[in-house]
């Protein structure tokens, strides 16, 4: 077997990102919870393989499949802009196990105010870590900015949940089961922009097709954040809409009435099953490397781009996840 050539393009995912199917295949590998079991040494080995290959150095004996496996591991654990290792619970591969536990508990313990507050706080704290870890761009964020954004996001989410709970107190129990979903959907609209507010203040990097940085755009940041909010709400719909209907029916059966302790683990399992598919499929709704027409950018940036390349019509940016 000959030495692996340098013709493999690992700047992009293995599958065509212009199609939903290609993006879905990519995110099924990136969000695979088994990636969490990889040791620090395995992650560093994957990073070295990817970085060496990008620098034109092929690891001896490396095959194309091994190269792509290293790329998938690298994508699952390292930030695409900064190259930093993402904290364990902030990785997309942690979405299913973390969300199945938190969401399952939110759907189970929704009747009492203290448990609503606690699990909404846990959920939004986790979301804050994920939103920061998967932000777009490489601009530093101060501890003060992070603290302010975190307190604002979690307070807004908890207040939303309590407000919705009070509005549904006298409605049928099935309606009350959907309060956590409504709170999560509303909270995503608060949490994501707040935890990534710096992108809305200074913009995110936009590049040409070859990846050459052209400047920063707030307009691109707004578009990217909107897409992320839609994806996150989409992820929550199956996991928070299907299990409540099933559990409402099961809790009326004698089997679960005699075994009430089965309710929580059963709900967590149902949520996990939904999330295994919803997480990668909703991440795939929009390309991670999104594009925007130059004509939609800020006038200053548009003029700067046209000065360098008058024929350029589209630029690209990492929207985050």
Order of helices and strands: HHHHHHHHHEEHHHEHE
**Strand order of the biggest β-sheet:** 1-2
Main beta sheet: 2 strands, antiparallel
What fraction of residues sit in β-strands? 5-15%
Rg computed from alpha carbons, rounded to a whole number of angstroms? 22 Å
Count of individual helical segments: 13
Measured as a percent range, the helix fraction is 55-70%
* Straight-line N-to-C gap: 39 Å
- What is the overall pLDDT average? 82
Shape: globular
Structural class, please? mainly alpha
- Uncertain stretches: none
Question: Can you walk me through this structure?
Answer:
- With 321 residues, the protein is mainly alpha-helical.
- It contains 13 helices and 4 strands.
- Strands 1-2 form a two-stranded antiparallel ribbon. Strands 3-4 form a two-stranded antiparallel sheet.
- The radius of gyration is 22 Å and the shape is globular.
Give keywords.
single chain; 321 residues; mainly alpha; two-stranded antiparallel ribbon; 13 helices; 4 strands; 61% helix; globular
Helix and strand topology:
Elements: H1 20-30, H2 40-54, H3 64-77, H4 95-108, H5 113-133, H6 143-167, H7 173-177, H8 179-195, H9 197-202, E1 204-207, E2 213-217, H10 218-250, H11 254-258, H12 263-283, E3 289-293, H13 299-308, E4 314-318
Antiparallel strand pairs: 1-2, 3-4
Transmembrane segments: 225-246, 266-286
Family: Belongs to the sideroflexin family.
Catalytic activity: L-serine(in) = L-serine(out)
Structure described in brief:
The longest helix is centred in the last third of the chain and has 33 residues, at 218-250. The protein has 321 residues and is mainly α.
């Amino acid at each position: 077997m000959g030495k692996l050539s340098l013709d493999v393009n690992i700047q992009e995912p293995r599958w065509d990102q212009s199609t939903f199917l290609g993006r879905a295949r990519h995110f099924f590998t990136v969000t695979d919870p088994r990636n969490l079991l990889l040791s620090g040494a395995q992650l560093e080995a994957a990073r070295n393989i990817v970085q060496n290959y990008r620098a034109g150095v092929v690891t001896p004996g490396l095959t194309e499949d091994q190269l792509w496996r290293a790329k998938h591991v690298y994508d699952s654990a390292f930030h695409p802009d900064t190259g930093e290792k993402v904290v364990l619970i902030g990785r997309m591969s942690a979405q299913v196990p973390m969300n199945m536990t938190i969401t399952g508990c939110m759907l189970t313990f929704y009747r009492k105010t203290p448990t609503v507050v606690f699990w909404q706080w846990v959920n939004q704290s986790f979301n804050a870590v994920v939103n920061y870890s998967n932000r777009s761009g490489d601009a530093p964020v101060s501890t003060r900015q992070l603290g302010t954004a975190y307190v604002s996001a979690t307070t807004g989410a908890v207040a939303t949940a309590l407000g919705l709970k009070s509005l549904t107190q006298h409605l049928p129990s099935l309606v009350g089961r959907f309060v956590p979903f409504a709170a999560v959907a509303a909270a995503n609209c608060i949490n994501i922009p707040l935890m990534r507010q710096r992108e809305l203040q200074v913009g995110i990097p936009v590049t040409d097709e070859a990846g050459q940085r052209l400047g920063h755009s707030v307009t691109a940041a707004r578009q990217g954040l909107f897409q992320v909010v839609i994806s996150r709400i989409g992820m929550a719909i199956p996991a928070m809409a299907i299990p409540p209907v099933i559990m409402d029916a099961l809790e009326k059966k004698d089997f679960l009435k005699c075994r009430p302790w089965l309710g929580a683990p059963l709900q967590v399992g149902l949520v996990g099953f939904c999330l295994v598919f919803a997480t990668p499929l909703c991440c795939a709704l929009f390309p991670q490397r999104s594009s925007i027409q130059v004509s939609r950018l800020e006038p200053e940036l548009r003029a700067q781009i046209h000065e360098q390349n008058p024929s350029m019509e589209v630029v690209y940016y990492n929207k985050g996840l």
